[in-house]
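Re: that chain you flagged

S.,

Sorry for the slow reply, it's been a week of failed gels. I finally had a moment to sit down with the sequence you sent. For the record, here it is as I used it:
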Amino acid sequence: MTVDAAARRGAQVLIFDADDTLWENNVVFERVIDDFLGWLDHPTLDRTEIRAILDDIERANAVAHGYGSKVFLRSLADCLERLRERPATDVERQEIDRLALALVEHRVELMPGVAEALDELAGRHELLLLTKGEREEQQRKLDACGLLHHFRAAHIVAEKKVDTYRWLIGEHGFDPAGAWMIGNSPKSDILPARAAGLNAVFIPNENTWVLEHDELDPTDAGILRLAEFRDLLRHF
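Prediction finished late last night. Pasting the structure tokens below so you have them in one place:
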């Protein structure tokens, strides 16, 4: 079924984020960070202070190098070097790699209700998937999730900005006023989608990466706030 056919039937275009919306992602990174902070055992700085330094480093590296496990490992090494005021040794880099082994071995764990909800939603709406990150890493997760058959198309992009959503609208030729971006990130999923004229569904995840946080306008009628993924079935 094409987007035009979906529109003729009164269906809507639903665009889904992937990480931390369809499946858990950042919680695995948080576990690695927790182990990293414990391993550092800094003599003067506590975990909160070190985490603030790491957040600043991650923010800079995301701008310069993008997202994904490789950039994350780079940030851990950069944090260690800043705190110890010297380059990381081979032994220290090997320990960072060991701590982050869970990122490589992590299996895709769907959020509760995702598979069942998508089964129903795909029968009455046009579904697209839009995820950002390192292409090979994201593709591995897409291939492993078992959900791709629900989506007309799945796009992996370097960043989700207003122009990204405008491109998506042009690529698939749908009316943004009748479409919804669904995700957990105010910064990447909700605010730029709204700026591009889309409606948005915000499904918070307590493990959302701190760099994806942002303030949402509580008076914006174009944002639907839901507690969990399966609640989509009550609205779509």
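What I noticed first: The chain has ten helices and six strands.

Talk soon,
D.
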